[in-house]
Amino acid sequence: MISGNLGWILVAFVAYMVFMIGIGALYMKRTSNSSDYFLGGRGLNGWVAALSAQASDMSGWLLMGLPGSVYALGTGQIWIAVGLFIGTVLNWVCISGRLRRYTIKANNSLTLPEFFENRFRDDRRILLGISSVVIVIFFVVYTASALAAGGKLFNIVLGVDYHIALTIGALVILAYTFMGGFMAVCTTDFVQGLLMLVGLLVVPLIAYGIVGPDNLMAAIASTNPEGGVNAFLDIMSNGGKPLTFVEILSQLAWGLGYCGMPHILVRFMAVKNEKELKKSRVIAIVWVALSLFFGGIVIGVVGRGYLAPVILGAEGAPSVENVFIVMIEKLFTSDIAAPFIGGIFLCGILAAIMSTADSQLLVASSSVAEDIYKGIINPKADDAKVLRLSRIVVIVVAVVAYLIALDPNSSIMGLVSNAWSGFGSAFGPLVVCALFWKRTNRTGAIAGMISGALTVIIWDYIPLVSGKTLGDSTGIYSLLIGFFVSLIFIIVASLCSKAPSEEIVAEFDSVKNSDNC
Predict the structure, then answer these.
(1) For domain 3-23+40-407, which CATH number applies: 3.40.50.11270, 3.90.640.90, 1.20.1730.10, 1.20.1260.10?
(2) Could you tell me if 114 and 281 are in contact, meaning their C-beta atoms sit under 8 angstroms apart?
(3) Most buried of the four, 144, 260, 434, 509, by CB within 10 Å?
(4) Partners of 238 in the beta sheet?
(5) pTM recorded for the entire structure
(6) What span, in angstroms and rounded, lies between the C-alpha atoms of 22 and 15?
(7) Are 64 and 152 in contact (CB under 8 A)?
(8) Considering only CA atoms, which of 338, 371, 319 is closest in space to residue 133?
């Protein structure tokens, strides 16, 4: 970028970040207790709930990780998008309504760990402790992925050193999350969800129009993709090689993670009524379909042709995960106004990053302050003390995630993949069973949660086969294994131990009978 263009982009970035911090300051005045800070008093409307849930879900992965994978390997990466779309639909249709009603019925649970404790009458608070620890561990990794994406964005666009860029992004996210809590996060995520969608739809359309439908194939072919242009566009091919059944299944398995994502599930819990929840379902499903297929996938394909003869990922070229950034830079440099517009679209990437990081910081904070401190260590703690601790934890988690993200070579896709698998395996099967199988008991819940989390850790991090992890040696995504290991442990342990009490069964039946969606 030339200096004049850079100035306009910087103006757009600063204006956007000041706006986000302003929202945090506004809601700080309206946050008086821990219920407001963690769940917004269950007052979300349909539009905010839908867009904040999906914006916090997709993160920088949607605008950097997915397009980068498609750019590098071809449309065979679409199976991840297919799995995520199916998971999104099932989550909103099957999980959202019953989870909202059940968390209210189960002693007005404010967090997912608290719901598990209340649902299974865990007086020993074992579930509360385990689930809170799992949340903190995996959200630190997840938040690190978002901060790394922000560092890479500032680094390539503004030419700022990666570590300085990482620090700027982390401080802005930390500021409005620290101040405003849940409503600030959801409101900023709503704005960010709209901005993400506009960028995902407009940028590839403009680039496609410039390349021209008749020239796109030739442009892609000129970059010499593995296996040729036909293999690049074949959804049954991956990097020029035929996709195996295991690879397709592993990509589809991403969809299993949705029912175990605390930062998404908490939006369901916070919607103010059933009417707004039904509206949210439609909005969220449409947003995801447009963003994944028209946005993430098309950017990777069109970007391959539009940026030709440049080949991202080659020596001296930016990473493939920067394809969307490079496209915007190239598109919006023609006149004095265009760089500012380009800066706004680049803010869409920043929005994706911030919308996930803020949600993760807040959920991790709630797990420590509300669940571990108030739930286990000091049950008599007042709201003021919990609120103060919550804000301190936000800072601590952000600092730890920042330290992990200091490596500029860290893969956004890899970090997201590991965290997504951890949550999906530890919580996904338990959420499903807790909502839909009345025979689930505390023993089964504990067994399922521990087995799911440990499976992912062993599968992804411990080299058991000739110096390689099981994930690397088999090519099977850990979520596919962890989810079903956890499900089996829940079923077997529940059936082999004492059945739930009549009180628990009666509560389950009352929630089930109130289904009207």
Answers:
(1) 1.20.1730.10
(2) no
(3) 260
(4) 241
(5) 0.83
(6) 10
(7) yes
(8) 371
pLDDT tens figures, 436-494: 999 999 999 999 999 999 999 999 989 888 888 998 899 899 999 999 999 999 999 99
Compute CA 505 distance to the chain's CA centroid, rounded to the nearest angstrom.
Answer: 33
pLDDT in tens, 121-133: 999 889 988 998 8
DSSP 411-459: -HHHHHHHHHHHHHHHTHHHHHHHHH-TT--HHHHHHHHHHHHHHHHHH
Buried b (16+ CB within 10 A) or exposed e, 330-353: ebbeeeeeebbbbbbbbbbbbbbb
The residues facing 44 across adjacent strands are 271
C-alpha–C-alpha distance, residues 510 and 83, integer Å: 32
CB-neighbour burial class of residue 213 (10 A; exposed 0-12, middle 13-18, buried 19+): exposed
Residues 6+ apart with CB under 8 A from 482: 421, 422, 424, 425, 426, 452, 453, 455, 456, 459
**Nearest residue to 446 (alpha-carbon basis) of 477, 492, 414:** 492
Q: Residue 262 and residue 103: Cα distance in Å, rounded?
A: 13
Task: Return the DSSP state at 109.
Answer: -
- Please name the helix (run of DSSP H) or strand (run of DSSP E) that holds residue 242, with its range, or none: strand 241-242
Q: Which of 128, 94, 298 is nearest to 204 (CA)?
A: 298
Check whether the bond before 309 is cis (ω within 30° of 0). Answer: yes
Residue whose C-alpha is closest to residue 129's, from 113, 144, 108, 118: 113
Residue-wise DSSP of 49-108: HHHHHHHHHHHHIIIIIHHHHHHHH-GGGHHHHHHHHHHHHHIIIIIHHHHHHHHHHTT-
Element (H, E) at 252: helix 245-252
CA distance 396 to 143: 12
Q: Model confidence over 138-188: pLDDT tens digits?
A: 878 777 877 777 777 777 777 778 888 788 777 877 776 666 555 666 676
Residue-wise DSSP of 450-484: HHHHHHHHHHHH-EEETTEEHHHHH---HHHHHHH
